[in-house]
Amino acid sequence: MCDTYLRGPSGVITSPNYPVQYDNNAYCVWVITALNPAKVIKLTFEEFDLERGYDTLTVGDGGQAGDQKTVLYVLTGTTVPDLIVSTNHQMWLLFQTDSVRNLLGFKATYEGNLSSVLGVCLPQKKQGCGLVWILSSQDM
């Protein structure tokens, strides 16, 4: 899915090329924000298949993707993670891969009264993907 726009109170986030193998040197960021600051974001994984220890999906609280102070989980390997719930109205995801082995990646659904989800997949070292996702919905 390249340059895809989705609308609704829930949606799907997948690694680049899913369900086919993801690219080498991928660097993807998604930020999920609920309109109502009293809401939280729920993230449920359906599939998860990353190269253990080398390819990671980091999940954090807030709107500042990559902020080490807000990291909730660093996920890797092939075990489908349990439900993840933010502690506030924002959640970020950062997907990073190395240049060696590619697996199938991940598929996750988010739920909540969301205002927007912005995701950008850019290649590290100008190789691989050039994907942009923007997902949004209205507060109910």
From TrEMBL:
It holds the Pfam family CUB. Coiled coil: none annotated. The keyword Disulfide bond applies. Gene3D superfamilies: Spermadhesin, CUB domain. SUPFAM superfamilies: Spermadhesin, CUB domain. Residues 2-113 form the CUB domain. InterPro entries: CUB_dom, Sperma_CUB_dom_sf. PANTHER family: CUB DOMAIN-CONTAINING PROTEIN, OVOCHYMASE-RELATED. This is CUB domain-containing protein. It comes from Gopherus agassizii.
